Structures are given as structure tokens and as C-alpha cells.
Amino acid sequence: MKHSNLLALLAAAALASAAGASTTVQAQTIKPVKSVTQKVTNTYSFPKKWRGKWYSSNILTPKPLIIKLGSYTSPKTGQTVKMTSVANAPTTGKLTSEITSVSQDQDSTKLAALATGTTKKINHITWSLVTPAGKDAESAAYSMKVEKLNGKKVQVLFQAQPDTGKVYNQYFKSKKLAKKYGNHHFKKISYTEYNYR
User: What is the pLDDT of residue 99?
Assistant: First the structure.
């Protein structure tokens, strides 16, 4: 009887040992979860008619403004800037003015290549508000209209103050038009008192 009890105890111990070994093996096969890096999704797109090269006679924007589906090339610096929505902006998901100066200093290079985009109606005109995420960057409002010049219809892209909708720069589809009509004041467009055209 004692012998059978001993065998039973040994068998139970062996089973327990086997179960423990199995548990250990399973624990070793579990891989740690990797940290996920936040990605900026391209959720703001410029209107199709805006895409392409635009020229200005403004001395502060000597390079062409190149607009693509979800990015633009700055006419001031020549740098390509990717567009995103305000909700998907990095760090805080808020506008540039609300992003902390600490995060801007740490990611200044990344932020310089990023801008948020929203739409807003000012003076009965729908504007696209573009806010570069770089430190000390200025926001601007853009709107495209078809205007008449010497009886011909031409596309004009207006750049204005984001709070007032007053235009301080305008772009054309050719250098020739930009040089000739850079200082032209179109009807129903409100201009700033100063300009650099």
C-alpha cells in the first residue's frame, strides 16, 4: 500500500513538473509589444484646381509656389511642406501657437516640414488656412478665383491674412502674368494697406 502511494506521489510530482515546464516555455515565447511611433496622416488636401506651379512678383516669395495633393513647396524657402489636419498634428493635436516651445525645439526640423490645414469663410470667401508648424512660422489664408484680365479669364491664387482675409500677395500660372499684374487690384477683393509686390 505504501509502495503504491509512493508511486502515486511520484507520478503527481512528475505531472506538476511537466506542467511547470510547459508554462515556462510558453512564457518564453511571448514577445514584448513594441512602442508605436506616431505617424502624421495626410488628411488635408488642396483643391484639384490649385495644384501645379504658381508665380508671384512679391519680393518675399521669389520661388514658385508648387501645390500638390497633400503638400506644397514654400515660395519663400523652397522647402516641401506636408499637410495634415489640426486633429492629427503631432505632439498635442492643436494649432502651432498651442504646441509647447520645448517640443518645437526638440523637433524643429520635423515641424518645419509640416503644416496644418483648415477652411474658413471670411468676407463671403472660403479660405484655406495654412499654419506651418515650425517655430515662429506665420499662418496664411489662400483662396483661388477666376478673374478677367483684358477680357480673358485667368486663375488667381490669393494669399491673405488669416484673421481679416485681406490680401497681401497673389499668384498666377505664369511668370509673365505675375510680373504684369502683380500689383493689380481685383474687384471684390480686400487688400492690405501695405504690400511687397
Answer: 45
Beta-bridge partners for 169: 159
Distance separating alpha carbons of residues 17 and 23, to the nearest angstrom: 10
- Pair type for strands 152-160 and 125-132: unpaired
Over the stretch 103-152, which tens digit does the pLDDT of each residue have? Answer: 555 566 677 788 988 899 998 899 999 998 866 678 999 999 999 999 99
Check: pTM over 0.85? Answer yes or no: no
Contact 170, 163 (CB under 8 A): no
Residue carrying C-alpha cell 511547470:
20
- Residue 152 to residues 102, 113, 149: CA-CA distances in angstroms? 51, 37, 5
Cβ-based neighbours of 50, under 8 Å, separated by 6 or more? 67, 142, 144, 157
Q: Which residue has the cell 505632439?
A: 91
